[in-house]
Design goal:
The structure holds two protein chains of two kinds.
Chain A lengths: L1 H18 L7 H4 L1 E6 L14 H11 L4 E4 L4 E4 L2 E7 L4 E6 L19 H12 L13 H5 L2 H4 E8 L2 E6 L6 H5 L9 H9 L5 H4 L7 E7 L3 E6 L12 E6 L3 H9 L5 E3 L3 H7 L4 E7 L2 E7 L9 H9 L3 H8 L4 E3 L22 H10 L5 E7 L10 H14 L2 E6 L3 H9 L5 E7 L6 H8 L1 H6 L9 H12 L3 H18 L2 E14 L2 E2 L15 E2 L2 H5 L1
Parallel strand pairs in A: 1-10, 15-16, 15-17
Antiparallel strand pairs in A: 2-3, 4-5, 5-7, 6-7, 8-9, 9-10, 11-18, 12-18, 13-17, 13-18, 14-18, 19-20
Chain B lengths: L1 H28 L4 H6 L8 H7 L6 H13 L13 H36 L4 H15 L2 H15 L22 H7 L5 H40 L1 H8 L4 H19 L1 H18 L5 H11 L2 H29 L1 H10 L1
Classes of the chains: A alpha+beta, B mainly alpha.
């Protein structure tokens, strides 16, 4: 039936192309999308990595999670778990699974059953339980060890076919946020079992099976990844049949391919140049992503142990100019270390204004009429800071105005971070990119006393009152209470000023106007679940 | 002819032998374990000891070389270090993709280069000759990567006629079987073969054109000079004296003799094409040997570097041999010259 229809389409297309200059697109092109990704995925299982390229290529397309995070409503929504409840004072979470969720049917695996508690248990035990048969296949699980999730979860218990309990060692309100990330995906236990029998367990990460909106077709390194729509997807799926990742590492080439129509969507476009091209069929979208770049003061060194000095230096920096010069306006001025997209964000009463007069006065109050400092600038480009060295140069001249002379220091990236951890710096320009939607992710890894020991706390700032606030905030699950605690934390930060937040940069993508429904969620990778392509004819009319 | 054949073949075999010795020694020259460099199996993998045995890793170097040769001729070229795909099968696809470009470019160069050369020769030192020849000089001097940028800017960006990367729009779902896209389209099960073919042709135009320009200009100049030289020869004068038309003189006498000397240069042409194909493939993301080699160098994928070098060298040697044999067979004078110097 489909074939017959397609033949008619071919004949029609041939007839039309003969007498019309504006040909309609052949069917395969009209119901497929090409995404020009920036690199090869390392694997097809996001549990194994933290690289953004791999997450973009796999997580939201091939898999589903127990719960999802809706960034617009700022709350968790059901996914594979249709509902969940908290038991035992927040140390036990019970998930009720959705019925009728189908795994992908491909030429290398045919599922005989739908999603059950066994699959969830298998997927979690893969990274949690060192005795699990699959734990050593693929090796390490960086996201789960970095967030401490593998320490937090005690065990995963199957209550019945469709109910799973996750038992925690202690209550932690950031737990759900971590579950909603791209990394906490659900694999097929049946497929894993079949591969074990066939003695090819490593195939689970190269020929993936999931429940997501697309299933895997083929992968050619350096060339493409081919996905097709999962026909039995459990919720609203994509409006296209095929999704191709055309691997194009070169940023200029990506942009040209977008212009010639070889790409439908590209990540990380050269925004200023694309605007100059001014093609009307293209559009650029952006999203404030959960990152922050900041200037941290080494508070264990003289004279940065004095909050007055830190405030003085902060008031000397013209951050507006930095946003214009370094980010070309593609960033938001940071008022707090938390980005404005976070539910705990609160800028009431927080002001870091640019005021050289005040800065000079504060410096005199602190008995420092002149200062010699170093600014450490990252040698690499990061999402949150495209050019740290140039930023340091701008700050150098700002600081000179209040009589502070600054020297810029930079090393190779690994050496740079190693020396930072040893606390050799006066001040440093660096930043942070959040993995999940919980505000805790911006505080504990960056500014807690524990982070001083692990080297994550670039300000070497250990404030017992502040730590107290952070730990009370994760011990409760009441959002209002947490919000109040984080507001106090932000105010305390503002007074103490161990660091100066500079900018929250935006993440960009450029696309043909005919594409819609492609989401770039603030937390996590690109999502093609609702992607559709409008026919070209509609546009030209 | 037999003597000539044996002579040429033995030179070829010695060259191939030296080539394999070189590629075998690369395994030792690259950093890391030689068996890993040969097979792509890392020392910590379970099947390493098996591979070690198969490759005679604990015997002397001569035995290792013999085992290496055996695997080489059996088509077992090991696995890629970066994604564990078999190198030989992969290499064959890349080889076909490159050959597709190179052969088409050679055809374009011959079809346009030779007639233009003859045209210029017949109008020797006239204005049209000068125009053609300065055009040829220009075409020959422009670096390939620069020409590619210019043509991409004009044909792909400004006019939007041709796409700039890959072999075909991936949404047609044509899976590589041979590696040559035009053949693959014919082999594919797609219901949109006609459209797919058109799309593939659209993709191939720019790379072939850019690749063809330099050899075309070279051929043009060679052909012009050779034809011009022939037109001065006494036998041409004799032919004219017999009252043959200028056209017959050209087609029957001057051109065949000119082609002979030009043909000798085609081996040079072929190496030029092969080298330029690396640049063109990188620019157009063409999945050919050049692209393969460049990427493998970046990734330090030793089995692939080795395979690509081997393939490149082998293809050049083989083409040289074939041209020489054809030459010897077609133009007896070459055989005699060869024998005289013996």
């Amino acid at each position: 039936m489909i074939k017959a229809y397609a033949n008619v389409a071919v004949i029609a297309a041939a007839l039309v192309s003969g007498c019309q200059s504006e040909e309609p697109e052949p069917a395969p092109l009209a119901d497929g999308i090409i995404y020009c990704s920036e690199g090869n995925p390392d694997t097809f299982n996001p549990q194994l990595i933290t690289s953004g390229t791999t997450v973009d290529a796999t997580a939201a397309q091939l898999y589903d999670r127990l719960i999802d995070y809706d960034a617009k409503q700022q709350k968790f929504v059901p996914a594979l778990a249709k509902r969940w409840e908290t038991l035992d004072n927040g140390t036990r979470y019970r998930f009720y699974l959705r019925e009728g969720v189908q795994f992908h049917k491909t030429d290398y695996f045919e599922p005989t059953r739908e999603l059950t508690a066994e699959d969830v248990q298998f997927s979690f035990n893969r990274w949690l339980d060192e005795t699990s048969l699959y734990h050593h296949v693929g090796g390490s699980y960086p996201f789960f060890s970095a967030t401490g999730l593998d320490q937090l979860i005690n065990k995963v218990v199957k209550i019945d076919e469709m109910t799973v309990d996750i038992v925690l060692n202690n209550a932690d309100s950031s737990f759900l946020a971590n579950l909603a990330t791209d990394f906490a995906i659900v694999l097929s236990a049946e497929y894993a079992q079949k591969l074990l029998v066939a003695e090819r367990p490593e195939q689970i990460d190269s020929l993936p099976i999931g429940t997501g909106p697309y299933r895997f077709e083929s992968y050619r390194k350096d060339i493409l990844i081919r996905y097709s729509r999962h026909p039995d997807y459990w919720r609203e799926g994509p409006g296209i049949k095929h999704l191709v990742y055309s691997i194009t590492p070169n940023a200029n080439k990506r942009m040209l391919k977008l212009v010639t129509g070889e790409c439908d969507i590209i990540p990380y476009p050269l925004v200023s140049e694309l605007k100059a091209l001014n093609r009307e069929q293209l559009m650029v979208t952006n999203e404030v992503s959960p990152n922050v770049s900041f200037w941290a003061f080494n508070t264990q060194k003289e004279p940065f142990d004095d909050p007055l000095v830190r405030q003085a230096l902060s008031h000397a920096i013209n951050r507006e100019a930095i946003i214009q010069t370094i980010y070309y306006g593609n960033a938001e001025l940071a008022q707090s270390i938390l980005p404005p997209t976070s539910w705990a964000y609160d800028d009431r009463g927080i002001q870091y204004q640019y005021d050289p007069e005040k800065a000079r006065r504060l410096l005199q109050e602190a008995d420092h009429s002149s200062l010699d400092i170093t600014i450490w600038a990252m040698p690499v480009q990061r999402v949150y800071n495209p050019n740290a060295r140039r930023m340091a140069e701008l700050m150098q001249s700002d600081l000179a105005q209040i009589g502070v002379s600054a020297r810029i220091v930079s090393y190779e990236w690994n050496t740079f971070r190693r020396r930072l951890s040893r606390g050799e710096h006066d001040t440093v320009l660096i930043g942070w990119y959040a993995d999940n939607a919980d505000p805790d992710n911006f505080f504990r890894p960056l500014l807690s006393c524990a982070a001083v020991a692990t080297g994550g706390n670039r300000a070497n700032w250990c404030h017992t009152g502040f730590d107290q606030l952070l730990y009370s905030a994760i011990a409760t699950t009441n959002p209002e209470e947490r919000k109040a605690l984080y507001r106090s934390a932000q105010h305390l930060l503002n007074q103490q000023q161990p660091l100066l937040p500079i900018a929250h940069s935006k993440r960009f993508q450029a696309q043909q106007k005919s594409i819609s429904g492609v989401e770039l969620p603030p937390y996590g990778g690109i999502n093609f679940r609702l992607a559709t392509k409008k026919p070209v004819q509609e546009q030209s009319q | 002819m037999t003597r000539y054949l044996v002579g040429r073949l033995s030179v070829f075999i010695i060259a191939v032998f030296l080539l394999t010795v070189f590629s075998f020694s690369l395994n030792y020259l690259f950093p890391g374990d030689p068996i890993t460099n040969m097979t792509g199996v890392r020392t910590f993998q379970n099947n390493y000891s098996l591979v070690m045995e198969l490759r005679a890793g604990d015997e002397n170097i001569a035995a290792q070389y013999l085992h290496y040769l055996r695997h080489l001729f059996a088509g077992d070229w090991g696995l890629s270090l970066s994604n564990s795909t078999p190198v030989f099968a992969d290499g064959l696809q890349h080889f076909m993709a490159s050959m597709e470009l190179i052969i088409l470019a050679l055809l374009v160069a011959v079809i346009f280069g030779l007639p233009l050369g003859v045209f210029a020769a017949t109008r020797f030192r006239q204005r049209s000759d000068k125009a053609v020849i300065s055009l040829a000089m220009m075409g020959y001097s422009i670096p390939v990567f620069w020409l590619a940028q210019l043509l991409i800017l004009l044909f792909a960006i400004k006019l939007g006629w041709f796409p700039i990367t890959g072999q075909i729009n991936p949404l047609y779902g044509v899976e590589p079987q041979t590696g040559s896209i035009l053949i693959d389209v014919f082999l594919s099960q797609s219901e949109y073969k006609a459209e797919a073919l058109q799309d593939a042709l659209n993709h191939i135009v720019l790379p072939v054109l850019i690749l063809a320009i330099m050899p075309m200009m070279l051929l043009l100049r060679l052909m012009r000079n050779a034809t011009q030289e022939m037109l001065q020869k006494p036998f041409v004068k004799a032919a004219r004296a017999r009252g043959l038309s200028e056209w017959r003189v050209l087609v029957k006498h001057a051109i065949p003799n000119a082609v002979q000397s030009v043909l000798q240069q085609t081996t040079l042409l072929f190496s030029l094409l092969l080298t330029n194909s690396i640049v063109v493939e990188s620019i157009f993301n063409w999945p050919g040997m050049g692209n393969w080699l460049i990427r493998s160098i970046f990734e330090r994928d030793y089995p692939i570097i080795q395979a690509a070098v081997l393939m490149f060298a082998f293809v050049i040697l083989l083409f040289n041999l074939l041209v020489e044999l054809y030459h010897g067979w077609r133009f007896p004078i070459v055989r005699h010259e060869q024998n005289a110097t013996d």
